[in-house]
């Protein structure tokens, strides 16, 4: 095709992965996170790269195309140097100089004759600058990024770079918006219009607008639409509006703070102000009748040695609390052990009996709307057990503070009663006016948890009266603001305040939190009730409310921008390019979790947007719990988007999933929507160690799609060789692009890439033997594997066979059984630090190994690994399957050698038990050499014994003669 785009021919996967990783690591300082919580926002750098990749033409000079693309992304050498904003430390400089020619090293460093260590010479300012650049150029790409701003934080390529860009593209641009306008005019006849019908947190519309595109953004969820609107109209509004928002936030903060101070509900008689109140759940032991405070641990602050200790009150049949500061390590450990709830069981400290929490919940009462605190006869009570006070004093003429941890006094408990009375006095009015939620919690996969475990049936039940009082005050002050960006900014801050200040905010005593701190409500993708929680008050509480937004001029004021809550199936706007990140078969229950925020926004949204609805539209959400409905909804959505783009229009579908059945469904969906996949690239978007929990892949596949025009059908027997070629080409391109930069792809991502390659073949033309419309609407039997799913699984098998483990010769690999291949490839995966069960499960599927669990030493989700020779011992030896393979005999020979401390024992076993020993000897040596290499892997200390004996046994077998 003459109009092929850059992204359909090549894409700098490794570099973009490294940039995405850097942006992810920025955490709360990412551009859009300041607006509010949303799950799974895609990195802005990925959106920019994808959009530029769609607009840039592919020329006959692919090398120059890549060079220009990197210049536009400021990912070339000059662009990276422009982005560099941090000095490289001396230790890194000296380490890098060691790898350079001696002339460079001696020019800038000298070796201490006594210590033999290298030290930097005294250098002038210009010499230091030259040295910084020299070292910077020698660093791997990912390490360079350590000292650089993100691409979004500078104003694009340099004037010199623009000369080269314009010369290659035949344009006359001096900024990204100008270039986008010119490229859009060439391809579409006008400034490109970019749409996202699943806009979520707003990454795609925001970056498209900032690049000068016209933008259409919609989402079924009004919370997502609000976040996207705010991204464009707050962060893209300019310094003047941002400064006005800052003043408004400050005025609201001061008004609320003055009222709290006047009420005297956060100050004690010493003038100290609280900044944290710690509460725990309390319940009556069904065995002895004592009231027991519930928590998994009674450590309050590891750093300052603060613990809660409970003393029995025989008369009242309860416990009174004492708070101790600066305790010993032993007392800290005892406080950790003395938690009264372990493994979801109440451990009564009085009678010593254990009661499952499920038993405790049998008499749970469902709370009613007017409930704001437990009733006296409720199963679970809530008890204040510690207050962290802040004392302000003057020392050496300067104002200083110190913290004190104290058990609540009678005066503190009276202040608690006052808080409750103040709230009850205002509660009905505040609910009616929307300052406090009045929405009932609908039952669902995630929202059932508060109902089931606590009996909380309305959203305000997730908040303590103290939290509701402050949030109600914020809502009251918000109502006095005129409708503007200020109003929406404060409304979003109320949502952020609620996220960081609910009864679902667990207390974290870890020293990494300094004196201890609270987590957010959504520290994971759930609504888990907890036994002890912290409430932020005082100045500590305002950290989550008072936020200084950064400004990014998106230029959207010059273009037409539409943001609206709408079902993707009903979108009516026409776009040249659709870039979407659709739901992944219930990977995140957006429609349920977002209702936490919608409860606070619903009565304010009509004031902001009279044409919007304020409902989560749960019934219309695309959900994976019903596969048939999921397929139907996705087809309707993408068929509609395809109908609303020109014949030369383009789509990118971002997709992350590792289930072959879901990928088979995606094939059907795209095909039925009239789309064909023209390219697929795997970007490592989830590479942070904190994101590796659970069985998730670290890559996002960008599926580039066009309207399907080919009507000539293919037959099933034609598909297999085509898929095989496509998978191999995909893997070869990834391996070629996977240079020394980090993060590199992991084994799960290569499997995922195989899925995507299969899609290119399966969506290109009609398939004679498959009625797609029937497949979409057909109810499948449990466990049924469709034709498409089988073809996609075969694609993974091709990938597994193609990616021969390093250290195994191809001729040896071809002689191995599926079980042997699984074990050897699994060891390589383990050596890369991969312990997720799902990766091994998918590997077994790829090799066609039905039962692989017997080969595992550990089957826990994030601790999965394979057995060593000693762990196999004498089990699984002989017979069919893995037990009868040469590899199993080799492992047993290693075990025999270890047991008798003599590699000769293993050699004798192999010569005795393998009838074709001499024919298999070369293969045995190859297997032993491969197994021996894992003896030095730092993350596999358990393998050292097996690996060392494998090396010794290899020598004996290699030198064995007739």
Describe the structure.
- By secondary structure, the protein is an alpha+beta fold.
- It contains 37 helices and 24 strands.
- The protein has a seven-stranded mixed β-sheet with strand order 18-4-3-19-20-22-21, sandwiched between helices.
- Helix 2 (44-55) crosses helix 11 (203-210), helix 3 packs antiparallel against helix 9 and helix 27 crosses helix 29.
- The longest helix has 25 residues, at 239-263.
- It starts with 12 loop residues before the first helix and ends with a helix.
Largest beta sheet, briefly? 7 strands, mixed
Which structural class fits the helix and strand makeup? alpha+beta
Record the strand order, biggest sheet: 18-4-3-19-20-22-21
Shape: globular
Beta content comes to 5-15%
First CA to last CA: what distance?
64 Å
What is the number of helices?
37
- Total strands: the figure is 24
What share of residues is helical?
A: 40-55%
- Mean pLDDT level: 88
Our Rg estimate from Cα atoms comes to 32 Å
**Contiguous uncertain segments of 5+ residues:** 687-697, 740-744
């Amino acid at each position: 095709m003459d109009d092929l785009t850059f992204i359909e021919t090549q894409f700098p996967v490794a570099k973009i992965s490294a940039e995405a990783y850097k942006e992810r690591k920025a955490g709360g300082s990412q551009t859009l996170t300041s607006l509010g919580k949303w799950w799974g926002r895609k990195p802005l750098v990925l959106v920019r790269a994808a959009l530029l990749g769609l607009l840039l033409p592919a020329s006959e000079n692919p090398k120059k195309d890549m060079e220009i693309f990197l210049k536009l992304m400021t990912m070339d050498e000059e662009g990276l140097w422009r982005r560099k904003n941090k000095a490289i430390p001396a230790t890194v400089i000296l380490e890098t100089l060691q790898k350079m020619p001696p002339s460079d090293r001696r020019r800038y460093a000298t070796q201490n004759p006594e210590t033999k260590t290298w030290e930097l010479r005294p250098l002038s300012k210009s010499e230091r600058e030259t040295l910084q650049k020299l070292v910077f150029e020698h660093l791997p790409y990912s390490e360079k990024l350590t000292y650089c701003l993100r691409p979004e934080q500078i104003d694009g390529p340099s004037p010199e770079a623009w000369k080269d860009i314009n010369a290659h593209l035949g344009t006359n641009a001096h900024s990204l918006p100008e270039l986008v306008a010119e490229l859009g005019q060439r391809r579409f006849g006008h400034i490109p219009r970019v749409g996202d019908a699943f806009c979520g947190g707003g990454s795609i519309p925001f970056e498209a607008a900032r690049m000068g595109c016209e933008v259409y953004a919609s989402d079924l969820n009004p919370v997502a639409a609000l976040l996207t609107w705010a991204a464009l109209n707050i962060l893209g509004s300019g310094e003047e509006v941002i400064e006005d928002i800052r003043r408004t936030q400050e005025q609201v903060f001061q008004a609320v703070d003055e009222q709290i101070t006047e009420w005297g509900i956060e100050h004690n008689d010493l003038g100290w102000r609280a900044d944290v109140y710690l509460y725990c759940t309390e319940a009556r032991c069904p065995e002895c009748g004592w009231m027991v405070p519930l928590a998994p641990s009674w450590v309050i602050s590891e750093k300052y040695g603060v613990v809660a200790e409970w003393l029995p009150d025989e008369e009242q049949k309860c416990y009174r609390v004492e708070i101790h500061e600066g305790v010993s390590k032993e007392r800290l450990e005892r406080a950790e052990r003395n938690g009264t709830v372990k493994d979801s069981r109440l451990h009564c400290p009085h009678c010593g009996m254990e009661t499952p929490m499920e038993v405790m919940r049998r008499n749970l009462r469902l709370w009613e709307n007017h409930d704001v605190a437990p009733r006296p006869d409720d199963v679970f009570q809530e008890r204040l057990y510690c207050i962290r006070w802040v004392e302000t004093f003057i020392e050496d003429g300067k104002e200083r503070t110190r913290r004190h941890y104290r058990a609540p006094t009678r005066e503190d408990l009276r202040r608690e009663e006052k808080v409750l009375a103040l709230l009850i006095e205002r509660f009905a009015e505040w609910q009616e006016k929307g300052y406090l939620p009045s929405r009932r919690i609908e039952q669902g996969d995630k929202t059932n948890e508060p109902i089931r475990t606590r009996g909380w049936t309305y959203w305000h039940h997730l908040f303590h009266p103290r939290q509701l009082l402050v949030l109600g005050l914020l809502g009251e002050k918000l109502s006095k603001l005129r409708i503007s960006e200020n109003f929406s900014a404060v409304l979003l801050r109320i949502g952020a305040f609620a996220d960081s200040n609910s009864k679902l905010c667990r207390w974290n005593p870890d020293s990494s939190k300094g004196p201890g701190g609270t987590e957010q409500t959504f520290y994971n993708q759930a609504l888990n009730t907890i036994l002890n929680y912290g409430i932020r008050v005082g100045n500590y509480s305002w950290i989550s409310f008072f936020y200084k937004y950064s400004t990014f001029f998106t230029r959207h004021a010059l273009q037409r921008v539409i943001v609206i809550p709408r079902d993707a199936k009903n979108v009516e706007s026409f776009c040249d390019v659709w870039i979407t990140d659709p739901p992944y078969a219930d990977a995140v229950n957006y429609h349920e979790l977002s209702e936490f925020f919608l409860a606070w926004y619903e009565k304010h949204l009509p004031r902001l947007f009279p044409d919007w609805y304020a409902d989560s539209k749960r019934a219309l959400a695309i959900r994976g719990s019903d596969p048939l409905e999921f397929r139907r909804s996705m087809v309707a959505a993408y068929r509609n988007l395809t109908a609303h783009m020109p014949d030369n229009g383009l789509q990118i579908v971002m997709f992350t999933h590792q289930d072959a059945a879901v990928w088979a469904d995606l094939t059907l969906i795209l095909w039925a929507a009239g789309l064909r996949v023209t390219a697929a690239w795997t970007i490592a978007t989830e590479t942070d160690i904190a994101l590796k929990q659970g069985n998730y892949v670290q890559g996002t596949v960008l599926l580039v799609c066009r309207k399907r025009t080919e009507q000539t059908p293919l037959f099933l027997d034609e598909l297999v060789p085509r898929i095989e070629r496509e998978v191999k080409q995909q893997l070869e391109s990834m391996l070629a692009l996977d240079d020394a930069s980090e993060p590199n792809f992991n084994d799960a991502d290569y499997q995922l890439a195989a899925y995507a390659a299969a899609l290119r073949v399966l969506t290109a033309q009609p398939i004679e033997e498959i009625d797609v419309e029937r497949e979409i609407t057909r109810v499948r039997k449990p466990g049924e594997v469709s034709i498409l799913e089988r073809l996609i699984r075969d694609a993974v098998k091709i990938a597994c066979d193609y990616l021969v483990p390093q250290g195994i010769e191809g001729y040896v690999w071809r002689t191995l059984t599926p079980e042997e291949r699984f074990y050897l490839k699994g060891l390589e995966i383990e050596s890369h630090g991969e312990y997720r069960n799902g990766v091994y499960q998918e590997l077994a599927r790829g090799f066609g190994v039905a039962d692989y669990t017997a080969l595992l030493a550990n089957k826990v989700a994030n601790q999965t690994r394979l057995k060593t020779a000693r762990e196999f011992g004498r089990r699984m030896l002989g017979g069919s399957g893995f037990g009868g393979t040469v590899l199993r005999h080799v492992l047993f020979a290693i075990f025999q050698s270890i047991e008798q401390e003599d590699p000769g024992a293993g050699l004798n076993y192999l010569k005795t038990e393998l009838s074709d020993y001499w024919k298999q000897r070369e293969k045995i040596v190859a297997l032993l050499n491969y197994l021996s290499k894992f003896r030095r892997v730092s993350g596999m200390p358990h393998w050292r014994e097996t690996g060392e004996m494998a090396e010794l046994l290899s020598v004996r077998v290699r030198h064995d003669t007739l």
